Amino acid sequence: MHGPFYSLWEFDVVDATSLLEAVPSVLQTLQQRDGFVAGHVMRSPDESQRYAVHCTWTDVGSYRRALGSTDAKMVVWPFLANMIDRPSAFECLIAADGNSITRFESSLGAEDNS
């Protein structure tokens, strides 16, 4: 069984008002895509200019199809132009809640686990 998939987009923000005004349309665009579970906007308490947009997806395919959609190319990709250039997509391999720890199979091939 494969676990959920997460995207984490980080930004160093000079104009927080502009970022926070743009995010709802980005999240609304993503909400319309199959496989979208949730999205959050976060701010670092240690570096107040650092913001992050975290989204949960059912799987990597849903995430990739969502970002490849025409709507995403018009709304999401321009928003991502100012994202910090680093890996921003992650599959869940181990999850813990208040009652258990769950391990998931990787959806990547064995050659990608190095």
Walk me through what this model shows.
There is one protein chain. Helix content is 32%, strand content 29%. Strand 2 and strand 3 form a beta hairpin. It has a single domain, classed as 2-Layer Sandwich (Alpha-Beta Plaits), CATH 3.30.70.100. The protein has 3 helices and 6 strands. Helix 1 packs antiparallel against helix 3 (70-80). It is an alpha+beta fold and 114 residues long.
Number of domains: 1
Topology as a string of helices (H) and strands (E) = EHEEHHEEE
Average pLDDT, to the nearest integer?
Answer: 93
Shape: globular
Which percent range describes the beta-strand content?
A: 25-35%
Derived from helix and strand composition plus strand pairing, the structural class reads alpha+beta
The largest β sheet comes out as: 4 strands, antiparallel
Q: Which CATH class applies here? A: Alpha Beta
- Which radius of gyration do the C-alpha atoms yield? 15 Å
- According to CATH, what is the topology? Alpha-Beta Plaits
The residue ranges in which pLDDT falls below 50 over 5 or more consecutive positions are none
Distance between the termini: 21 Å
Number of helices: 3
Any descriptors?
114 residues, alpha+beta, two-stranded antiparallel sheet, 6 strands
Helix-strand blueprint:
Layout: E1 5-12, H1 16-31, E2 36-43, E3 50-57, H2 60-68, H3 70-80, E4 89-91, E5 94-96, E6 101-103
Antiparallel strand pairs: 1-3, 1-4, 2-3, 5-6
Helix pairs in contact: 1-3
